[in-house]
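User: My collaborator and I are trying to settle a disagreement about how two of our proteins should look. Neither of us wants to argue from intuition anymore, so we agreed to look at predicted structures for both before our next call. Could you fold the first one, then the second, and keep them clearly separated?

Assistant: That sounds like a sensible way to settle it. I'll keep them separate. The first protein:
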Amino acid sequence: MLDESTKSEIEILSKKELDRTIKRLASQILEKIPNISSLLLIGIPTRGVCLSKLLAKYLEELSGHSVENGCLDPTFHRDDLSKVGTRLAQVTDLPSSLDDREVVLIDDVIYTGRTIKAALEALNEWGRARRVMLLAMVDRGHREVPIQPDFCGRVVPTSKNETIDLRLTEVDGEEGIFLCKNTKKLSDSS
């Protein structure tokens, strides 16, 4: 008998619901940061960068002003690379100085908090922001460091054998948020 892993998924947010949630988050950002010219959105690869661009688009529609956004890859600041593995790092691309800016770090899912901890360390190398806030599309719990999002699309409690997948057309060819359950079943290979 061999163990075979199977993956089942449940849709948490449809494409339409995801779009509505992103628009709500844009409105919340405008409420908290009335001076849009001081705002800088910084996405964490991969889907955080796509979310940053979508938020910038909606913020411009709501405010009538363009919003700068960029990308910050915290890979080399992680303290858990041996546990999570490495991937090809993306180039950090910030459109302007961070000094005296209202920065919103954007990530798709917050889990242990270690990605955000690493992003904050990486951010310090690029300047001193007036304030740094965090936007996570999904908070799934299980924090290992004391980091909480200032803006959150959904809180979805999970077990450790579950994952949350944010899918965006630009990266995945479809949109939505899915809870994925990894289960093992026994099979007879004889």
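The second protein, kept apart from the first:
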Amino acid sequence: MDYRKTNAPSNTVTRDMIRLSTDTGNVYETVAIIGKRANQISVEMKQDLEKKLQEFASYNDNLEEVFENREQIEISRYYEKLPKATLIAATEYEEGKIYYKNPAKEKNNL
């Protein structure tokens, strides 16, 4: 999923974890699923930001020459305004867009 086109809120939202955990039957398992997805999204966002900022990197040895790069500042501000990875992951979980499986539970069902 493209995190730039998500409808996740950019502010903190209180969620009813009991209602969210009806699929798994376990609040802690639900939190673990959302947490792992948030880590995946966070890594993807960081790699994307680093790739875009590499275009503006200067490899000068002169530390006295410090200048503002407007494009770099705008890119950084854009990524700061995006919803946090945990909010995106929680929204994806609520919408049923996250696929997960528990191998321990599947082993017991066999």
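Some points you might bring to the call about the second protein. Residues 13-100 form one domain. The chain has five helices and no strands.
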